Amino acid sequence: MEVSTKHFRKRDAILTYLRSTDIHPSAEMVFTQLKPEIPDLSMGTVYRNLNLFKQQGLAVSVATVKGVERFDGNTEPHVHFICQDCDAVIDLMDMNVPESLKAVAAQCCGGQVEGCQLSFTGICCNCLDNQIKGGKAV
Amino acid sequence: MEVSTKHFRKRDAILTYLRSTDIHPSAEMVFTQLKPEIPDLSMGTVYRNLNLFKQQGLAVSVATVKGVERFDGNTEPHVHFICQDCDAVIDLMDMNVPESLKAVAAQCCGGQVEGCQLSFTGICCNCLDNQIKGGKAV
DNA sequence: GTTGTAAATAAGAATTGTTCTCATTTAGGA
DNA sequence: TCCTAAATGAGAACAATTCTTATTTACAAC
Questions:
Q1: Strand C closer than 7 Å to the CB of B40?
Q2: What is the pLDDT along chain B (138 residues), one digit of tens a residue?
Q3: B2 and B59 part of one domain
Q4: Structural domain ending residue among the three candidates B32, B48, B73
Q5: Are A85 and A50 members of one domain?
Q6: Which nucleotides on chain C have any atom < 7 A from a protein Cβ?
Q7: B34 beta carbon < 7 A from strand C?
Q8: Quick check: A72 and B86 in contact, CB under 8 A?
Q9: Last residue of a domain, one of A73, A96, A113
Q10: Nucleotide with the nearest C1' to B45 CA
Q11: Which structural domain range is residue B65 located in?
């Protein structure tokens, strides 16, 4: 009872993982996650398929954190919080970007607006806790 | 009538250029711009000082476009438009991020919000024009 | 002036994230 | 079985960035 043919097993595994997680993984995080169950997976395949998903609109690049691109299988535009300490990329699902802004942006620049991205940076609650409990002076 | 001592001439030149332009240059763009007037400038110095400015809050990193970090000497939070065709990063000065959003974000994630970034992607007016005039099919 | 010290720098090596190349495997049709 | 096109692994190649080291510079103490 195979869900996917052998031919696309890796591609499917990458997309499935991307859709199942909310950690907004980098290519390497995807690789590390899937390697144990797919021992002959290679980084090339991960990058190749992530880029393919971007082209096809099955995934988006949500941020570049310390030089590393982060991906999201949730292509609905939503807001992110990026922790400067642990590099976590966290969904702020309760917030949404005012749809009206896109129209305003188009007017401002006179061009054709296709996407928008709102993200906050700071220290996430976990890292805040650790800083206090661990006595790590800020 | 030297504005800066010889010791800081390069650092100052980089910051001055960064503040004088609105093209949101990459490290290489800064280098290329200043090299003619400062022939012995090196890329190491550009990167070193850009990172220093970021730490000191004199500059910010506004985006990573096709793997290349882009800088801004204007540290006031404002909105950007990124052209997917020519990689231009353009200020949308008429728009501003609702200050209230930051508070909402802090509530959402329970962490400490320090900055926020709103950017739109699409095709800028120049590239739109070129596509039409040049007859380049999309 | 000379000496000493710390910061700034140039040059290029090293590192790292990403893309490319090419030989191999696989699927599916003729 | 043969053929073709797509997917892949492995590692080379590439590009952006950081690191290393020797040199230069400013400036203060002598």
A1: yes
A2: 333 456 678 999 999 999 999 999 999 999 999 999 999 999 999 999 999 999 999 999 999 999 999 999 999 989 999 999 999 999 998 787 777 788 888 888 778 999 899 999 999 999 999 888 776 554
A3: yes
A4: B73
A5: no
A6: 8-12, 16-21, 26-28
A7: no
A8: no
A9: A73
A10: C9
A11: 1-73
Cβ contacts (< 8 Å) between A84 and chain B: which residues?
114
Question: Does residue A117 sit in the same domain as residue A133?
Answer: yes
Task: Please check whether residues B67 and B96 belong to one and the same domain.
Answer: no
**Domain check: are A9 and A57 in the same one?**
yes
- Does this model's pTM top 0.70? My answer is yes
Measured between beta carbons, the chain A residues lying within 8 angstroms of B69 are 67
CB-based contact B108 A81, cutoff 8 Å: yes
Q: Which residues of B touch A81 (CB under 8 A)?
A: 105, 108-109, 111, 113
A19-58: pLDDT as tens digits: 999 999 999 999 999 999 999 999 999 999 999 999 999 9
